[in-house]
Amino acid sequence: MSTTNVALRKWVQDTAALTKPDRIQWCDGGDAEYEALIQLMLGRGDLIRLNGSTYPNCYLHRSDPSDVARVEHLTFVCAPEKAEAGPNNNWMSPGEAHLQMDALFDGCMRGRTMYVIPYCMGPIDSPYARCGVEISDSPYVTVNMKLMTRMGAPALRRIEREGHFARGLHSTGELDPDRRFIMHFPHEMLIQSYGSGYGGNALLGKKCHALRLASWQASREGWLAEHMLILEIESPEGEKHYIAAAFPSACGKTNLAMLIPPESQAGWKIRTLGDDIAWLHLDGDGRLRAINPESGYFGVVPGTNPKTNRNAFDMIQRDAIFTNVALNAANEPWWEDKDKFEPVIDWRGKPWQKGNGAAAHPNSRFTVSARQNPSYSPLADDPAGVPISAIIFGGRRRELAPLVYQARDWRHGVLVGASVASETTAAAIGAVGVTRRDPMAMKPFCGINFGDYWRHWLSFGTRSSKLPQIFHVNWFRQDKDGRFLWPGFGENLRVLRWIVDRCAGRVGARETPIGFLPLAGDIDLKGLQIAPEVVNSLLSVDHASWQREMNDIAGYFAEFGAALPSELSEERQRVERELAR
Ligand code: GTP
Ligand code: SPV
Ligand code: MN
């Protein structure tokens, strides 16, 4: 197999001349190809076959212990001007970055196979979809791309028809943390990733293409590329709404997207369109429509059980790849909060005993096709996407942020999104539990200066009068002893219902300086064991604390200097004035 696209043929030739692989394999995305790669990895010990009767066609991959999460400090945006990348990104000049990367890639595929992986982000016949080609020396990357994207021959045909594609070059190199870089060249629609085989560092269609390069493209072309789930909520009467929600990494997107209504909420249905990324475009009627560029999930494993997320639990019982989980005595995958059984081998492959700490890595992940999700919505394949009624921002904050509030209007909503803060998680290398600003949950993924990105978000306010309502939620408030105040998971449906009622104009609200909060009784709490004073504190706005918060946001915004849109600082000042009243 090769291609009629001259640019692609030349890029593959040039890349092979640089990296010097033993052979080149063009991937067609077929099942036989997948099966052959699995066999190859089983033979090499890169995969371990899991219990074939309880977990058919499931495999465990152990990544290098130094290579278990995204590396934000080694991720760069290499635009010609530093100001284009902004204070929110590491920057290197394209010239310098190319020199460094060419030296790393020189001869790095000797003895290896170079896989050419054409893929399409989005339904293959969607005008909103975009294609890319990843060149990688990792069979693990290749099989993951098959599960997570529309990979292979149909994508290549679209590339040949359209003539353009994003380029992503990846090599696992030596897995040496000192020779590891994830470089983005937005002006060339090019990604170069060296020295990691893990998730967001190596599956280049996901965060590198569909968020960092796409956010750059989207800001030029008038659309949005966001770190958002997409779900459908249907009422017992059959009223349907589509909601997009942005929470930082490991803060609940997969779980919310697959929510199972609790028994007390009979008749409600949630269907999943996406769990991590949304591309949003205004349609001819001025409605914001969303597609999920992915077709599979790379989800957090720990904490997944029939009570928290039965859909996810069920969908990973077959045809799934597990990365960095533990094993039990029956050669089944095991992770914290899975079941009462005990692990015997930890994620590193070492014997596990009580007192050894976590057996599965806290950022261990499953890879699975979205079609295995019991709550999968076939609208995920609709080329036109779905019209969004509400956008939800959220973070992991033990204090301050209420369970839910609604922005007054689009401009205030952009402030709410730009002000998101959240505790860091194991999804990235570095300290866990440190509260940091993570605007729109895009801190690690925005390929442009946040100042320009916020200006772009604000511009939608003048382009349409049918924009979604904007909300903020926080499932993670804790008491003094570190216990969660809100039960979360399926019970979050109660909050989604209030959001939908607000979108439909069915319920009033209490106006506060930070936005609209639910009136007593408007969030259905029937069947929930929760004390009234807990509900009160979840839905209260402490003015003094919020004044400190607004002050902190002012300090954060100041980092962006002249790039900060004046509307955003005016909006922040308005909230500050109202808090002081
Ligand atoms: P990425 O894939 O990293 O972008 O993460 P995500 O946003 O999809 O996060 P995910 O849904 O996988 O959740 C990560 C962690 O948050 C898991 O340990 C969950 O158990 C926990 N979590 C999710 N929803 C809730 C909730 O409503 N309440 C509480 N307390 N924990 C939750
Ligand atoms: C995240 O960290 O937000 C993820 C996992 O979704 S990764 O693909 O590694 O970026
Ligand atoms: Mn994510």
Largest sheet: 9 strands, mixed
- Using the CA coordinates, give the radius of gyration: 23 Å
Shape: globular
Provide the CATH topology of the largest domain.
Phosphoenolpyruvate Carboxykinase, domain 3
CATH-derived architecture of the largest domain:
Alpha-Beta Complex
Write out key terms for the chains shown.
alpha/beta; Phosphoenolpyruvate Carboxykinase, domain 2; 3 domains; 31 strands; binds guanosine-5'-triphosphate; binds sulfopyruvate; binds manganese (II) ion
Task: List the SSEs and their pairings.
Blueprint: H1 6-19, E1 23-26, H2 31-44, E2 48-49, E3 59-61, E4 75-77, H3 82-85, E5 90-91, H4 94-105, E6 113-121, E7 130-136, H5 139-148, E8 150-151, H6 153-162, E9 166-171, E10 181-185, E11 190-194, H7 199-202, H8 205-221, E12 224-226, E13 229-234, E14 240-246, H9 253-257, E15 269-274, E16 278-282, E17 288-291, E18 296-300, H10 306-315, E19 321-323, E20 326-328, E21 333-334, E22 343-345, E23 365-369, E24 386-387, E25 390-394, E26 404-406, H11 410-418, E27 421-423, E28 435-437, H12 450-463, E29 469-473, H13 493-503, E30 510-512, E31 515-517, H14 532-538, H15 543-558, H16 566-580
Parallel strand pairs: 1-6, 3-19, 4-5, 4-10, 7-9, 9-11, 14-25, 25-29
Antiparallel strand pairs: 2-3, 6-7, 6-8, 10-11, 12-16, 13-14, 13-15, 16-17, 17-24, 18-23, 19-23, 20-21, 20-22, 26-29, 27-28, 30-31
The site of manganese (II) ion has 3 residues, from loops.
